[in-house]
Amino acid sequence: LKQVFNKDKTFRPRKKFEPGTQRFELYKKAQASLKSGLDLKAVVQLPPGESINDWIAVHVVDFFNRINLIYGTMSEFCTERSCPIMSGGLKYEYRWQDDSKYKKPTKLSAPQYMCMLMDWIEMLINNEDVFPTRIGECDLVPC
User: Which SMART domains does this one have (predicted)?
Assistant: First the structure.
């Protein structure tokens, strides 16, 4: 378990919502609704009077946090040696491409790929132009 919280690993601490903010209140509603039962249609419905963009943003961040935790728990078993290719079974191989270092789709090991992916997602989530955290601003810009 110590490996999961090692700062040199790709596991990142959870992105948190500031208590007292609208996003924090939406997060609490989302958590409560997810524990309320099995009616998924009702669980994901937008609470009355809330912004759809804020509601979606809260769930995106929560999903990122959960995936990050899952990846952190299994990252010690998927190493450069044991997972030399990022793949989805025998049929699919995932390659990394970005606008800076990797101009063309590039083979990476699964740990390298996941590190790049988690960094990219975290950068987007922390970008105020994409995920504004100030109340009501998500309605003013595309989220």
Answer: Mob1_phocein (SM01388)
